[in-house]
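Issue 218. Parser rejects a valid record. Input:
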Amino acid sequence: EARRSSDEARDIAANTPDLAALAAAIANFDGCPLKAAGARQAVFARGAPDAAVMVIGEAPGAEEDIQGAPFVGRAGKLLDKMLAAADLEGRVFITNTVFWRPPGNRTPTLAEQQACAPFLERAIALVAPKLLLLVGGAAAKSVLGQGDGILSIRGRWFEWRSADGSIEVPALPTLHPAFLLRQPGAKKKAWEDLLTLVERLDRPERPP
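Output the parser choked on:
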């Protein structure tokens, strides 16, 4: 079932010429079980359509479900503040691994993430970011297929590849701002990760 909806999502996503068409396709897609689990609406993305950095979180929460945009609650405000402090304001595109709020804000299942993965992959292809910032363990695990905990992989570079291998983008896992709200002492680690990202982003291209 999950495989079938993922194949269907791949066909639909492949035919979207731009982000507006992709957002509409996601809203109309019935293959992710979360859509019928009490979410008000699909929550796709916000930010610059040609962003240098794509920020990928886990799932929409209550505030996101109401407003229809990702990272607009308390955690999102902290994320925006950190991005602005790192001089990334206006240079990011923000989305999640799933586009509907899981009941009770639980972590999305791998099957739910897999159903949405072709849309996320298409978003990466359309935005063509230089770098990915993966926010939280569930996002890092889903996007990178990494089994290790976020505390052991944060701040380390990985390579994300599209399903057909045609696109490769360096990806940096970091801590989720919701975690930082609960554990303010960890903010220093997340800030170090952001600085690592900016340093790589703004590094002059090496001559061939």
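Fixed in the parser; the record now loads. The first helix runs from residue 2 to 14.
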